[in-house]
Amino acid sequence: MSPSRRTVLASAAAGLAATAAAGQARAAAPAEGNGEGPEVFGHLPDGTEVHRWTLSRGGTRLKVLSYGGIVQSLELPDRDGEYVNVSLGFGTLAPYLTATTYFGALIGRYGNRIAEGRFTLDGTAYQLPVNDGPNSLHGGDRGFDKRLWDVTPNGRSGLTLRRTSPDGEMGYPGTLEVRVDYTLTRDGDFRIDYEATTDAPTPLNLTNHTYFNLGGEGTGSIEDHRLEIAAARYTPVGETLIPTGELARVQGTPFDFRRGKNVGRDIRESHQQLLYGQGYDHNFVLDKGITGAPRHAATLHDPGSGRLMRVDTTEPGVQFYSGNFLDATLTGPGGRVYRQGDGLCLETQHFPDSPNQPHFPTTVLRPGETYRSTTVHSFGTR
Ligand code: BGC
To answer: What is the model's pTM?
Structure first.
């Protein structure tokens, strides 16, 4: 299943040569390095500049904003060497400031939902902002996705993003020092390393919220993408998408992606869980559990373009969200309107609502401990 990057790159070069000969316009393979950044992408309402950094290596080109640590663009070649942006987003800063889709963003302090925004930690009750029906989602109404990060280049093709989340921010306890490294490896893999420390116990569940469409953003539905998820169980939810606490078997349900199937194959079944989520919006319990090094979680393939992405993680879960709430109110950088199912997320994470579900793996970070989490996206074609 692992894509052979060398083969991919060779065929990409051949594809470019063939195209040039045929005289058609196509995006060129990116020049390597991180020397292109930063450029000014826009300004916050108070006038602060937001920068955009560009990384290129191993046939992958990544554009990252200092606002929200947002992956604003991820360009990959198809099987003929044609580069397109496979991540949903916006061409300007303004819509990122107000949208609640979390396109490409870093999510914290707590990726996913906490029931009624409440939890008790060491005997103290905390109330978080409620921003998704009765629940708190993705760190509250101004989570890490809506903050400016301090970005510095790191090595040949990497960025280090840092921020201090003050005690009490969005209701969470403790001053949290967060560091996220975005790296393009020699093979063009996109690696994300998260690290954090705190001066008081706090729940923490960091992730990245990129929406993928391997055919290119704005090209339509991801229902024909083939998805494999290495999970025999998932966490079913109630109607506000809080886990019931059960770790249910996927076998014999629309949630069985173990052998790979098209995203759209079962999405219209009248299964109660699909009705609650308006599609897939569920945490899959990865068979491998929590691991010291990233291990296989999911593989996504677009048969049309041939583009393939494999996701490996140290996390025990992945939220597969099939872009159900995209409702034709937002327009991507290519000028196309996003409709339901035009992109999908594979958010590596601990399980939703863990602070209220004692039998889920703990998400509490304590002083003296270091939070570490890694997710690697590797790309190829087939
Ligand atoms: C959640 C969805 C939500 C989306 C964007 C996902 O992580 O699971 O329910 O609509 O983020 O807000």
So the answer is: 0.92
